[in-house]
């Protein structure tokens, strides 16, 4: 049914279905890399941060040849930092992406986010208690 919803461009309904599937079966994961990428982006756009992160968790292990690995993990890092305040986790993820894909076209965006996180970390460390 998930494939049908995606084929009909009913991405919001597909995200809702994935959310329900996660509730029924904590081990559920869509079987196609493209589906995960599309669903995670739609979930993030719709404010379903936990669903997006759950979809992206372990993506590189499940789909080691996917060209979407850097973009998906950049999205995950953004969600971790901007929506969940987990800057250290985001920074670790960005560092891993950069190390694994040093020539990728997203490296400038990864570097910009790392710089921003460094500045935020410096500011919060200097803030009075």
How does this structure look, described?
- With 129 residues, the protein is mainly alpha-helical.
- The longest helix is centred in the C-terminal third of the chain and has 20 residues.
- The model has no long low-confidence stretch (mean pLDDT 92).
Tag the structure with descriptive keywords.
73% helix, mainly alpha, 8 helices
| Cα-atom radius of gyration | 16 Å
Percent in helix: over 70%
Could you give the count of β-strands? 0
What would you call the structural class?
mainly alpha
Give the amount of beta strand, in percent. Answer: under 5%
What coarse outline follows from CA principal-axis ratios?
Answer: globular
Average pLDDT taken over every residue: 92
Tell me the span between the first and last alpha carbons: 52 Å
Low-confidence stretches: none
Main β sheet profile: none
The run of helices and strands is HHHHHHHH
Q: What's the helix count?
A: 8
Structure at a glance:
By secondary structure, the protein is an all-alpha fold. It is built from eight helices and no strands.
How does the SSE layout of this entry go?
Layout: H1 2-7, H2 11-24, H3 33-45, H4 49-56, H5 59-62, H6 69-83, H7 87-100, H8 107-126
């Amino acid at each position: 049914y998930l494939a049908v919803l995606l084929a009909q461009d009913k991405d919001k309904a597909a995200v809702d279905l994935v959310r329900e599937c996660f509730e029924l079966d904590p081990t559920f994961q869509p079987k196609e890399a493209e589906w995960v990428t599309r669903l995670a982006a739609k979930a993030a756009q719709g404010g379903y941060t936990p669903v997006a992160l759950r979809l992206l968790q372990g993506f590189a292990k499940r789909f080691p040849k996917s060209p979407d690995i850097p973009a998906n993990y950049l999205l995950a890092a953004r969600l971790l930092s901007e929506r969940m305040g987990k800057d250290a986790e985001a920074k670790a993820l960005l560092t891993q992406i950069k190390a694994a894909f040093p020539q990728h076209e997203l490296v400038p965006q990864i570097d910009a986010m790392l710089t921003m996180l460094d500045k935020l970390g410096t500011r919060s460390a200097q803030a009075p208690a």
